[in-house]
């Protein structure tokens, strides 16, 4: 099985598991998930300023819930803006009370304002992850390219615990995550 076929199969399985898990969650547990930044993550964020989040869609882990605790820490927030269908995106400063503009693939982003910002931390959605800190994304390469473009940024995956896989294939261009935050734990890379 080719890597692309294997990844497509793993994505389908992971999406189904995530969908079933989120549907089974108690509504209160769902509303409380990802509203607090664990202290080990807070320590890793201490010397950072710009944190890129994303607006969770459907049953994705809702990164926007981290906005309030990050703002309380004095962080500048940003959201990704998809630039084209070739996998390019940048990050725009985000104020939580500002309206968002519709983007490709059902994404939303802030007005360009003063233009793109450079993230110190990129909190990325994912479809699956493993303990080797590999991330299985949607398949468009947007976050892979962002990680390469901002190599000094702390790479954090946000996921539901059920999205963990035993092992994921990694291509040479895949950069491993530094941290993975789920609703039950913070996983740190080596």
From TrEMBL:
Named from the GO MF annotations, one term is: ATP binding
In which residues is ATP bound?
7-11, 135-143
Residue ranges the record marks as coiled coil: none
Keyword vocabulary terms for this entry: ATP-binding, Ligase, Magnesium, Metal-binding, Nucleotide-binding
Q: Which cofactor does it need?
A: Mg(2+)
Q: Which SUPFAM superfamilies match?
A: NagB/RpiA/CoA transferase-like
Looking at the keywords, is ATP-binding present?
A: yes
**A Pfam match:** 5-FTHF_cyc-lig
Q: Give a GO biological-process term.
A: folic acid-containing compound biosynthetic process
EC number(s): the record gives 6.3.3.2
Substrates-to-products reaction catalysed = (6S)-5-formyl-5,6,7,8-tetrahydrofolate + ATP = (6R)-5,10-methenyltetrahydrofolate + ADP + phosphate
Class of the enzyme per the UniProt entry, highest EC level: ligase
Ligand binding (substrate): 55, 60
> Its domain of life?
Bacteria
NCBIfam families the record matches: MTHFS_bact (TIGR02727)
The UniProt similarity line reads: Belongs to the 5-formyltetrahydrofolate cyclo-ligase family.
Record-given protein name: 5-formyltetrahydrofolate cyclo-ligase
